[in-house]
Amino acid sequence: MKICCQNVDYEKDMQDLVNLFFDEEDCPFSIEHLEEKNGQSLKSTFLVGSGDERKKFEKNFVIPDKIDSLLEKSLIKRNFKNHLYEVLSSLTKKTLPWGSLTGVRPTKFARDLVDRGEIKPHLISETLVREYYVSQEKAKLVTQILQNQKSIIKNDKLVDLFLNIPICPTRCNYCSFISSELKTVADKVDKYLDCLIRELEEMKKVIAEKSYIVRNIYIGGGTPTVLTAQQLEKLLSHITYPVSEFTVECGRADTITKEKLNVLKKNGVTRISINPQTFCEATLKRIGRKSTNKEVFDAYMLAMEYDFVVNMDIIAGLTGERFATFKKTISTLLELYPQNITVHTLSVKNASQIRGEEIKFKNDITKMVEYAEKILVENGYKPYYMYRQKHQVGGLENVGFFRDDTVCRFNIDSMEDTSSVIALGAGAISKRVFSIENRIERQPNCKFIEDYISRIDEMIEKKIKFFL
Ligand SMILES: C[S@@+](CC[C@H](N)C(=O)[O-])C[C@H]1O[C@@H](n2cnc3c(N)ncnc32)[C@H](O)[C@@H]1O
Ligand code: SF4
Q1: Could you tell me which residues come within 8 angstroms of residue 156 by beta carbon, excluding any fewer than 6 positions away?
Q2: Coil, helix or strand for 393?
Q3: Domain 1-94 classification at class level
Q4: d(CA 263, CA 274)
Q5: 3-state DSSP call for residue 263?
Q6: Model pTM greater than 0.85?
């Protein structure tokens, strides 16, 4: 059942919260929300119906005066969502790990509260728990991440460079990213790279003209190492910025060869991803990920010869996996001991081939994420960035961990909006951060390779204007 709000502006956020309470299944209640504003006083009323019964829940708030209209709207929304959380929690006797927070990045949300002077830094955890019903554990996670992000420098002249290779050897059934299977675009790859290089060369002129300083570089996807060594060499030879952090998200181990790693090393790459997702081979078959454990181990051993910082991605909640299987994946990961580990929680989006009803072991998934966060910390890893996506099982999160001094600043910049990003290629979304005005603008490229190639002049023209 859909929630019905007097002010439709709040309906989407409220519905997201309802969906989390009922795990994306149909809500058994009819819910109507009414509001009454009188000066700075605000009355929120929820009418909740079930069968012939209709219950009324009322709450009054006071909104501070002399604040700008956008902030006022966001405060009103927060109050209504908190009220809805209280109502649903009392009706269902359930709590959610992230309380009433939806549609925000929790670490950025907390940082903004501090920056706006709404709370003192040492009260972040307490405020999240008391005012937003966030669990103690997740509030602690936010505080730890913010501490581990202390190296962030905000400066509008610093930019990150992102290049997208939205192509994969084959498609994994859980994946919701826009990426084409190589066989469907094989005849377009060279043309795509030519366009990408053109876009890059034009943006290099803008970078020089505006005296931007490229701080971090990230080639993501898709699977960038689906490209041949020659194609990688051609692309990377155009990237000449002397940065201390340059990531290539290799991803699938079966695409990694010595020849390709030579090319990456020679061209200044410092960090790569080799992603197992799971070390259970039965699961790998089930999720249609054509890559084996042996390939991951071999690629990792090879990468160690080059001294790259290595990141490994895993996913909690892959179809059919129970806690014991996930636990084994974590222990194998700890044996390998990569510098970075990213723990994702499965997100079930329409763009993937799996559907909600296939996710059977929801309680196990909560246990998996709790276990991963605990055991990684016990083994010397620290959390340093985090994000939540819609439709993540159990309303959980994705967390990046590092050991020693190896945070990926690009990941922090992306999630905390601490740097502009010049993003190139199909599906890439550029971002311009105006830190003094506390404002962000975004500029997307076409999502699909074919459109990107045919509209490349337009993409370049828009991007130049956007960054000038
Ligand atoms: C943009 S993907 C690219 C990585 C690379 N192609 C690979 O598969 O190894 C980055 C990561 O997102 C995660 N991911 C993809 N689809 C997901 C989903 N539906 N739910 C949770 N995590 C997902 C995976 O862990 C993946 O490694
Ligand atoms: S998870 Fe990675 S390899 Fe699999 S389809 Fe998505 S982007 Fe491609």
Answers
A1: 420, 433, 434, 435, 436
A2: helix
A3: alpha beta
A4: 16
A5: helix
A6: yes
Residue 222, ligand 2, Cβ within 6 A: yes
Decide whether any atom of ligand 1 lies within 6 Å of the 271 Cβ.
no
Strand intervals (E) in 51-120: 53-62
Is residue 396 within 8 Å of 136, Cβ to Cβ? no
Q: Is ligand 1 within 6 A of the CB of residue 102?
A: no
Express each pLDDT in 281-306 by its tens digit. Answer: 999 999 999 889 999 999 999 999 99
CATH topology of domain 158-461: pyruvate-formate lyase- activating enzyme (3.80.30)
| Separation CA 373–CA 381 (nearest Å) | 9
Q: Which two structure tokens, joined as six digits, stand for 183?
A: 């066989």
Atom from ligand 1 closest to the CA of residue 277? 25
253 CA distance to ligand 2 middle (Å): 12
Q: Which atom of ligand 2 is nearest to the CA of 289?
A: 4
In DSSP terms, 56 is beta-bridged to: 47
Token pair of 433 as six digits: 């951060």
Boundaries of every domain in the chain: 1-94, 97-148, 158-461
Instruction: Summarize pLDDT for 82-131 with one digit per residue, the tens.
Output: 999 999 999 999 999 999 999 899 999 999 999 888 899 999 999 999 99
- Kindly identify the ligand whose nearest atom is closest to the C-alpha of 290: 2
Q: Any bridge partners for residue 273, and if so which?
A: 311
